[in-house]
Structure formats: C-alpha cells, structure tokens
Amino acid sequence: MTGNSDAAPLAGAVQNLDENTFSQFVRGAQKPVIVDFWADWCQPCQQMLPILEEAAVQLDDRAIFAKVNTQTAPAVGFQYAIRTIPTLILFSHGQEVGRRAGVHTVAQLRQWLDSVSEPIEK
Predict the structure, then answer these.
(1) pTM attached to this predicted model
(2) Residue among 13, 39, 42, 101 flagged as catalytic
(3) Of 8, 42, 71, 72, which one's alpha carbon is 20 to 30 angstroms from that of 2?
(4) Are 5 and 60 a contacting pair, CB within 8 Å?
(5) pLDDT surpasses 50 at 26
(6) 3-class secondary-structure state, position 80
(7) Which domain covers residue 104, as residue numbers?
(8) Is 42 known to be catalytic?
(9) Tens digits of residue pLDDT in 47-68
(10) How far is the CA of 60 from the CAs of 39, 41, 66, 75, in angstroms?
(11) Predicted confidence band at 3 (pLDDT cuts at 50, 70, 90)?
(12) What CATH code is carried by the domain that includes residue 95?
C-alpha cells in the first residue's frame, strides 16, 4: 500500500508513510496508530517487519500500523527525535502517547496498546 493519506487504510495492512503523508494520516486516524521508524540497512528493522504485518492483522480492530523509512523521510525522523531504529511510536488523536525501541512481539504490542490507549467502546 502506498502512503496515500486520502484513501482509507487497508484493513490489516501496514501503511507506508512519508514526509508528505505522515502528519495528515496520523492526525486523521480514527484509531490509535503505531508507527515503526525503520531503515533498509537495519537488521532488527527487517526482523520487525513480519511482526508488524502480523500485528496489523491480529490487532486491526484496535490500531492502525504504519511505517516510516528514516532514510527516505528524514524530516519525520528528525521531528520525532528518532535516535535508534527500530523505534515504535504510538499516536492517539494525532499525539504521541508512547514510544518503544527495539524488536517487539505481537503480544508485547497488544500489551502496550492495553496499557496506554483508552478502551474501545462497544
């Protein structure tokens, strides 16, 4: 999927964001957004990709998952003071509410959402 922020996020897919799409996408999201800041050369980032894809499927009702390549979108990485990758930032209503560095499991991502996001209204 491209970073086209005018389109609705594809359910269960990791969204690719860049400097042109990041702010509008994160601010306009109807659910919390977990953004993975990564780079092609980063081995732990490569390990995180299938985990992020699985989380996007398993946690689709809870959050939207996206990624930003810090090599091709350095301004976004600079804006959020990304010093290590992978770094995951959780946004709610366009505001950062949590941050974690390193590789995480789907279960850890679920627990993180539980600890920092408001309950989903049924």
Answers:
(1) 0.86
(2) 42
(3) 42
(4) no
(5) yes
(6) coil
(7) 15-114
(8) yes
(9) 999 999 999 999 999 999 999 9
(10) 24, 28, 12, 28
(11) very low
(12) 3.40.30.10
CB 69 within 8 A of CB 57: no
Q: How far is CA 32 from CA 43, 79, 82, in A?
A: 26, 19, 20
Q: Is 46 among the catalytic positions?
A: no
Three-state SS at 64: strand
Q: How many distinct structural domains can be found in the chain?
A: 1
Contact 64, 72 (CB under 8 A): no
Q: Is residue 53 part of a domain?
A: yes
Q: Token digits for 13?
A: 């897919």
CA dist 61 and 121 (Å) reads: 11
Distance in angstroms (rounded) separating the CA atoms of residues 111 and 83: 24
From 14, 45, 63, 76, active-site residue: 45
